[in-house]
Amino acid sequence: MPQTLSLGCIADDFTGATDLANNLVRAGMRVVQTIGVPATPLDSEIDAVVVALKSRTIAPQEAVQQSLAALSWLKSQGSRQIYFKYCSTFDSTPQGNIGPVTEALMDAMGTDYTIATPAFPDNKRTVFKGYLFAGDGLLNESGMQNHPLTPMHDSNLVRVMQAQTKRKVGLIDYSVVARGAEAVSERIAQLKSEGVGVAIVDAISNEDLMRLGEALKDMPLVTAGSGVAIGLPQNFGITPSEKSSALPPAAGLQAVVSGSCSVATNAQVQAFIAAGLPALAIDPLSISSGKDVVSEALAWAKPLLPSKPVLIYSTAEPAAIKAVQNQLGVEAAGALVERTLAAIAKGLVAAGVRQLVVAGGETSGACVQALGITQMQIGPQIAPGVPWCFAKPGDTPLHITLKSGNFGAEDFFTKAFTLLA
Ligand code: ADP
Description:
Elements: E1 7-11, H1 14-26, E2 31-35, E3 48-52, H2 60-76, E4 81-85, H3 98-109, E5 114-117, E6 125-128, E7 131-134, E8 137-138, H4 157-163, E9 168-172, H5 174-177, H6 181-193, E10 196-201, H7 206-215, E11 221-224, E12 253-258, H8 263-274, E13 279-281, H9 284-288, H10 293-301, E14 310-313, H11 318-328, H12 330-350, E15 353-359, H13 361-371, E16 375-383, E17 386-391, E18 398-403, H14 412-420
Parallel strand pairs: 1-3, 1-4, 2-3, 4-11, 5-10, 5-11, 9-10, 12-14, 12-15, 13-14, 15-18
Antiparallel strand pairs: 2-16, 6-7, 7-8, 16-17, 17-18
Helix pairs in contact: 2-3, 6-7, 10-12, 11-12, 12-13
The structure holds adenosine-5'-diphosphate (ADP).
Adenosine-5'-diphosphate binds next to helix 11, helix 12 and helix 13.
């Protein structure tokens, strides 16, 4: 007998899924994130599931297929409302995938109306008169116009969405949202009567998102960035509570594996070393020369682990990365380092590590896969957008956190462990 889930969520990328899950937990929901569509039913009582796909930039047909598979599984788990989560910079091309996936979900659910808004004021993403702002400027002046895969040249989301949608796209503008849930509901009814299928919604503050959330109570499908999530739990009678982020008690050894080369991660590595804690740098050229870097790193870590957390990192400054990339090629270097760090993470867990920090989005994906993690329960937030998670790969209890790129303050690597103590 499937349990009743309040929210069933489909996220178009991995760290975006964690970001959404983190917002839901902070609003009081107990949340599990799955890596891809699970093969089995849920085995714990929770309020929301976020199925993490990697469908942002794949072919629209493939993204639709994966999203429909996720929908079907979420429905089988009794989801009362479906949430399609995309990036807060609305990353997409005229072909999709936000539009095609939204329409496929609408068709499959038999619903003729939904909203779309990437507004996330806590992250400086606001929508006004249908225009998306990233920080203090319009999206197409924010650097996103130069994105390698999804360059955003137009900040008008009604136009952007209309280009990738067969249904008519409309706008619920700020003058409506500011008046509250009832005004939003009236506007929705009006747009529906005008044949609008998808409405972009303005929001510039968390208060706007709370008002909007109330108006979305009976909407079967919501599409948004992670911001709208803060206003939905209230509709299910759920309020913020520390209990929602409670994880089983942590035990075991502590380690950090870092493959991120962002400015923030470089500073975090330096802070860990400055705190007098043991750190080992991995040299990509040694890996490519055939040295058994994984065994060497594990042999270095094992005697140290019982007394303190260790850090194993490939994190480097831009000049060093360039030199490696020139010699090995950009993609080959990345894949080589990811594979190595993932094998090290697996070895560390085999050696008794039960509290693991992983830095780097791609690095996290590689580690999670190597560890065989398919589901994670979402716990307390360490830094905005980065929660501790709990997984049980092969029945081994493991607290793990996946920190992407520029997230977290300088003391992230040490602060993380104090939160589990
Ligand atoms: P972030 O979240 O900061 O973007 P990622 O893990 O997503 O971090 O990406 C970092 C990429 O850089 C990975 O593919 C990783 O393997 C690669 N990498 C890490 N260290 C080095 C290095 N020293 N030289 C070259 N590439 C590296």
